[in-house]
Amino acid sequence: MLAVTVRTLFFYFFLILTLKILGKRQIGQLQLSEFVTTLLLSEIAADPITNPDVPILHAVVPIVLLFALEIAISYTATKVPKFKKIFDGVPSIVVCRGQLDQKQLRKNRISLDELLSEMRKKDIYDIADVEYAILEQNGQLSITPKSQNLTVTKKDLDIHEQENGISHPLVIDGHIHDYNLDLLGKDHAWLHRTLKQKGTQYKKVFLFSMDDAGNCNLILKDQ
Predict the structure, then answer these.
(1) Residue 162 in domain
(2) Could you read off the pLDDT of 89-110 as tens digits, one per residue?
């Protein structure tokens, strides 16, 4: 009994330390690779806790290996966007400027009832009142209402304003996001020309984004 208690306390604090280093996230916010790692950690630690014949080192080594692998994957994903798509996927736009994308709903196996339920949580009851609904990599739906349909709306006050929509990242850490360029009707020539006017080039950019109204935000890499 004493051996089980000692092993339990050891792995309890060891796993807390490991997960703390990996970063603070709620289970619903875990990326796919992080969720798989968390499941494996619990399984690996369980055997030596309940079975005194299993050396503690037989669990410590795989846990450290998984920890190192997760760190390596996370670092590589920040530098190679295609690698990130494999492990974490990419956000999917299911409602764009009030238009429902049924193909994306089917592709991501989201029912219309589920989408409407998430909308009601935001006090939105009509898809036409949604500017964007985006399925994030962690499986959560982010819903942005149209500015004219917010509480005490500009529409109610008869104030007409162009929708700014959301900010679309066009360059992240020196990598161009072609999907968002196409969504905004822009191309590489426009991007290079715009960045040149701002005195830089895409490889020196940490974040360059633009919303639907054409407002841009530029953050250069730390030198």
Answers:
(1) no
(2) 678 899 998 888 888 888 888 8
